[in-house]
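Deliverable D4.2, example record:
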Amino acid sequence: MAKVIAKLKIPVSILREDKRFVAYTPALDLSTSGKNYREVKERFSEIVNIFFEELIKKNTLEEVLQNLGWKKVQSRWEPPIVIVQESETIQIMV
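Output generated by the structure prediction step:
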């Protein structure tokens, strides 16, 4: 049985692309997809766990998190803060 070593709160965006759902977090630069909302949430949780398992196994946790903009506050890691997520209208000149 796996034990919980940390609880993290990270931003995630869930988008719909045609018939698929895509979950993306800029805090880890990770994404995954699923057939529905429930599946994409489950897959997102799985991929984040695999990501951290590999970092711990390779002893690169601190290096990778720092490169992604995370800060170590006392003994815990905090992800970069998303200030805003909005849509921009952009004109492309051809």
